[in-house]
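Structure in, sequence out. Go:
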């Protein structure tokens, strides 16, 4: 009889514990879902106005116009309150058009886009007058050049002209996004060390390939990079006070047939743990993210991955850090 009472008592306690745990998890989930989002990596392109060269060989899903209306539909119900436009690697002759168009979009207040990171070619002598032209515009927050597209020369970003241009960005109060292959992050580290007065953002978690972190990588896949070198390089970049990390992009390369949380969590968690709660920002990477999943897929996955972290840290990642870093009002 005592054993029966003990069993019932234990079972009841277990049931209460399970119910309590489910209640807590639900509360955490709801709290996470209520956190507003500042998207620091929003792409827009109107193919009737510009034709980014890289789109000529891109998958069909990207070969169409993506504007504010499409962005609103993609982010519906996800509490995206502000967005920072990210340049789309337009041809050099279209850089001014891109910058002027984005300033107009930001000032129109017709969507969540309030600021922009524009295209530039820091390796050219014409960069200084170009960027000085836009430094006075409060909507312009920084510059990016997609470095992994430059295959002709190794470590182009470490050439004297390039370094001088990146130092100028710091003097003007502008940032530079590091968009490079995972195996080239050491070049970004060297650049950041040479330009301590400039703020850097590591795009897309250092472009890590989710497949290389799986215990059972999909058959036939050849590792795109050394996972341990990526881990070491991310930690080394995190050691630089002038560098932050953008949690973005990786869903575009998510392996088929594997749950997003399983394949993306190792990358997200390593970046969050390395950079800390105060030096990470969220990026949607829409519409490029569509190569692997929808905007909602990415947001939902990330919210699941970070759900066990303190709510205060989640808020920093999803919007507080971005507002502070880019000076958004």
């Amino acid at each position: 009889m005592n054993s029966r009472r003990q069993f019932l008592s234990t079972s009841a306690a277990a049931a209460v514990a399970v119910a309590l745990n489910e209640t807590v998890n639900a509360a955490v989930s709801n709290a996470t879902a209520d956190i507003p989002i500042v998207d620091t990596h929003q792409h827009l392109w109107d193919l009737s106005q510009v034709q980014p060269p890289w789109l000529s060989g891109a998958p069909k899903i990207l070969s169409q116009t993506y504007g504010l209306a499409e962005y609103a539909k993609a982010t519906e119900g996800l509490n995206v309150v502000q967005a920072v436009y990210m340049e789309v690697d337009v041809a050099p002759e279209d850089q001014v058009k891109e910058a002027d168009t984005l300033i107009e979009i930001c000032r129109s207040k017709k969507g969540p886009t309030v600021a922009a990171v524009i295209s530039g070619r820091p390796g050219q002598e014409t960069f200084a007058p170009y960027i000085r032209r836009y430094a006075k515009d409060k909507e312009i927050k920084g510059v990016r050049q997609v470095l992994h597209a430059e295959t002709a020369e190794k470590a182009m970003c470490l050439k004297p002209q390039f370094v001088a241009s990146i130092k100028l960005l710091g003097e003007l109060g502008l940032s530079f996004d590091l968009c490079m292959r995972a195996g080239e992050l050491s070049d970004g580290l060297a650049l950041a060390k040479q330009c301590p007065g400039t703020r850097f953002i590591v795009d897309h978690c250092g472009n890590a390939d989710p497949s290389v972190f799986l215990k059972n990588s999909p058959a036939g896949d050849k590792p795109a990079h050394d996972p341990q070198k990526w881990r070491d390089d991310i930690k080394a970049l995190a050691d630089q006070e002038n560098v932050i990390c953008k949690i973005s992009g990786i869903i575009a390369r998510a392996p088929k047939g594997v749950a997003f949380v399983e394949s993306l969590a190792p990358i997200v968690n390593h970046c969050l743990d390395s950079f800390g709660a105060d030096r990470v920002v969220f990026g949607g990477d829409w519409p490029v993210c569509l190569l692997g999943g929808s905007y909602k897929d990415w947001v939902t996955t990330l919210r699941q991955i970070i759900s066990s972290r303190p709510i205060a840290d989640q808020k920093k990642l999803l919007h507080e850090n971005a507002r502070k870093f880019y000076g958004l009002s």
